[in-house]
Design brief:
Elements (H helix, E strand, L loop, with lengths): L9 H7 L2 H8 L24 H12 L8 H8 L5 H12 L5 H6 L18 H7 L1 H9 L3 H10 L3 H11 L2 H24 L5 H18 L5 E3 L16 E3 L14 E9 L4 E9 L5 E9 L5 H13 L1
Antiparallel strand pairs: 1-2, 3-4, 4-5
């Protein structure tokens, strides 16, 4: 490395290392704010080694997870118009990590294998959510049983049926479908842990109420506190005025303080990262601004962190 201009000595690097390693080294950006090097574990955001991240790396290399590589589908789950806990449950089902009794037995947990609702068949994903007599009552009440039967007839597994249904159902029916799944799982857990028996009508009503409450909370005229909103323009304000959920604007800093807004832009064609900062006073008037260009592509969080470092300097 050439210390005087923070650049790689390409001739030396290519002499010492193989072609692939040399290319990786030469594509590693050398940033002027960085004075000393340190070893980091790239599998964790904080740079520290953890058994968890090492396990994930090993699993990704040793276990075939190609069937889970459906980027558009996973995004469809997270874009559902339902509470976050419903999205998380659907994600867990589709990833196969929900503690069904069949899965628990596979993991060595001593538990009965039968369904908690009907006590007849093995408790797996397809049975609990689709083919259990109790689940069929729920789907008949929600007018979704026909769609579910069609999905099950064209797919091999219950998880694949969920993939298919979310791809073809409307927004409203997707809401009804996913909240009913959450309510069925709630019913199952109440039966297992609290010995509570519910009717299918109650399960459907719980799902319906959940949709109504969620839509009321997310209506355009609903107001939220800025303390509940994570946004780069609000960090550090400490303010708590209410603003429309759909119209968050720049807010003035507290008396005696400045506000600094930071942004980073990235150009693949020019292979560079541009960082801009702007500091303003209480009334919003301009104090100072600055830009900086790095001749390399950085990750978004790295670029914004460099912008913050530049602002503090």
């Amino acid at each position: 490395m050439n210390l005087h201009d923070k650049s790689w000595n390409e001739h030396t690097v290519r002499q010492v290392f193989s072609v692939d390693l040399a290319d990786k080294i030469l594509h590693t950006p050398l940033l002027s704010p960085v004075d000393t090097d340190r070893i980091v574990w790239k599998a964790e955001r904080n740079g520290r080694y953890s058994v968890r991240s090492a396990y994930r790396l090993c699993v990704s290399e040793l276990v075939d997870s190609s069937h889970l590589r459906r980027p558009s589908f996973w995004m469809r789950i997270w874009h559902l118009k339902v509470p976050q806990k419903v999205k998380t449950l659907i994600w867990r089902i589709c990833r196969g990590c929900l503690p069904m009794r069949v899965r628990l037995l596979d993991k060595g947990v001593n538990c009965p294998p039968n369904c908690a609702s009907c006590d007849s068949e093995y408790e797996d994903y397809t049975h609990v959510f689709f083919t259990c007599p109790f689940a069929i009552q729920v789907w008949n009440t929600t007018d979704l049983y026909g769609s579910i039967q069609h999905a099950l007839s064209t797919t091999a597994l219950g998880i694949e049926a969920i993939f298919s249904l979310l791809q073809n159902l409307s927004v409203e029916l997707s809401q009804r479908f996913t909240t009913a799944i959450w309510s069925i799982w709630k019913h199952r857990n109440l039966r297992v842990w609290d010995d509570v028996t519910e009717s299918s009508a109650l399960v459907v009503e719980r799902a319906r109420t959940m949709i109504v409450d969620w839509e009321l909370a997310n209506a355009p005229n609903a107001t939220v506190s800025t303390d509940q909103i994570l946004s780069s323009s609000n960090i550090g304000d400490g303010s708590s005025t209410s603003v429309p959920h759909h119209g968050i604007r720049w807010q003035h800093p507290l008396p005696g303080r400045y506000k600094c807004n930071i942004d980073a832009a990235f150009s693949t064609s020019l292979n560079r990262t541009e960082i801009g900062i702007c500091i303003r006073e209480l009334d919003g008037s301009f104090v100072l601004a600055r830009t900086e260009v790095h001749p390399c592509l950085l990750q978004t969080d790295v670029g914004e962190a460099l912008g913050l470092h530049l602002a503090l300097q």
